[in-house]
Design brief:
Layout lengths: L16 E4 L1 E2 L18 E2 L2 H14 L6 E5 L8 H14 L5 E5 L2 H6 L2 H10 L3 E7 L3 H6 L6 H13 L3 E8 L7 H15 L3 E6 L7 H8 L7 H14 L6 E4 L8 E4 L4 H12 L14
Parallel strand pairs: 1-4, 4-5, 5-6, 6-7, 7-8, 8-9
Antiparallel strand pairs: 2-3, 9-10
Length: 290
């Protein structure tokens, strides 16, 4: 297998075969992210990808249940390129139950509805999309490169093609100022996106990012754990995504939450209340350096 630089995957892809079909992220400008700063974005030659798939197929015959196509925005590949990869997986790795990718809003919007339906028919099961926030001003501040409307359009386009959708949002992204707007607007955006899965992460500050600079200069203040839980509670009171699996169990989260919306929403809110009143345990972390 060929791997270049740091390799990232969603927590739910922990047991997946990870195949790099791109290197880095096609945007790579978000103010909070340092994931792909060690590499320049490029498309991995298709022959190398096919070689990696063949090697993995021979190394673990009948054992590859899931495949994750990395790095940060595999959906940006030409549709014909992706179809060749998916066709190989379907024909040679029949035990594979799911193929997933990270997808940027721009890469989704560049695909036609016919492209996306063809990818779904060829075996693309799940796309991970980073909303981060539904607040327009904050989305612009973190340099996501798209509007909230474009994020919603991309999500709806993926769903219309029959591809599963997992959306991430970041608790604490606004700091201690504007957190109410961030929480409410994010919930309202999710309500329109209708994802199958919602992953709520907690903001971490990484050295070398613009956000680290904002912390250093004092223009951004990191929320304390109870402030983060208060923000999560507000988001849950505004969210309306029937059937969506909600998870706040990433390594970054102080309070672990898991349930299915909307049926478990009140239970999740009660757990936030318990934490705010000191009746629920929180995770403890070593603070990251700036």
């Amino acid at each position: 297998m060929h791997y270049s630089g740091s390799v990232y995957r969603p927590p739910s892809e922990a047991h997946s075969l990870i195949v790099q079909v791109t290197l880095g992220c096609s945007h790579n400008k978000c103010a909070f992210c340092n994931m792909y700063k060690d590499k320049t974005f490029q498309i991995v030659p298709i022959d190398q990808v096919m070689e990696d798939l063949a090697w993995a197929h021979n190394a673990w015959p009948g054992q590859i249940k899931r495949v994750f196509l990395a790095d940060g925005d595999a959906l940006i590949l030409p549709t014909e390129h992706l179809l060749r990869i998916l066709d190989y997986i379907r024909e040679n790795i029949p035990e594979c139950e799911r193929v997933a990718v990270y997808a940027s809003p721009k890469s989704i919007l560049k695909k036609t509805p016919e492209d996306l339906r063809a990818l779904r028919q060829a075996g693309l099961d799940l796309a991970y999309l980073g909303l981060e926030t539904g607040n327009e001003a904050l989305l612009k501040k973190i340099n996501k490169g798209v509007t909230v409307a474009q994020q919603i359009e991309a999500a709806q386009k993926i769903k219309a093609a029959g591809i599963g959708l997992s959306v991430t949002a970041i608790n604490g992204l606004s700091g201690t100022v504007g957190w109410e707007e961030h929480a409410v607007d994010t919930a309202h955006a999710l309500n329109q996106m209708r994802p199958d899965y919602i992953a709520l992460l907690t903001l971490r500050i990484y050295t070398g990012t613009p956000m680290a600079q904002w912390i250093e200069e004092g223009s951004l203040t990191m929320p304390k754990p109870m402030e983060l839980i208060r923000e999560t509670r507000l988001l849950l009171t505004e969210i309306d995504c029937p059937g969506a699996v909600f998870r706040s169990n990433h390594a970054s989260n102080y309070l672990v939450l898991a349930g299915t919306l909307n049926e478990d929403r009140e239970r999740l809110i009660r757990k936030c209340d318990d934490a705010l009143h000191g009746d629920a345990p929180l995770r403890r972390f070593v603070e990251l350096g700036h």
